[in-house]
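Crash report, auto-generated. Payload:
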Amino acid sequence: MINKFNRITWLSIGLLVLSACSGGDDASGANSGVVKPVELAPGQKIYQNYCFSCHAPGLSGAPRLGDVEAWAPRIAKGPELLLKATIEGIPPAMPARGICMSCTDEELAATVDYMIRNSQ
Ligand code: HEC
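Recovered output after restart:
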């Protein structure tokens, strides 16, 4: 009787461990208990990885994110021109593609859009 009880106990512990592990393989992470990273707005991730270092402190005259006054005359040029300036760079201080050489034009457009939305 005791032996049977033990077998069942160990079996259920084994099942528990198994199910806990398989939950971790779930790509959606829905049942794994893993906290998903907060979804970033399009462009926000690239901004934080590449543009932030200059555009947060306003390095070398870079218009700071959220600085409505600094952005107003730039935003007035329209998003196409801002994207063109981002892709080509503005010598000497604004590097071409904002230093993100692996970014596509679409990703840069989303990043410029993110900066505009947060600076007006
Ligand atoms: C090394 C510093 C630096 C980095 C990194 C950088 N910028 Fe800039 N950026 C500048 C400076 C400085 C200016 C202002 C240039 C000027 O007007 O002479 C500027 C200006 C701009 C402007 C305004 C252009 C215009 O026509 O007025 C946009 C848009 C912009 N940056 C987007 C970005 C994006 C997007 C990224 C990241 C992918 C980025 N920048 C990364 C320094 C930087």
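Post-recovery validation: The chain is about 55% helix and 0% strand.
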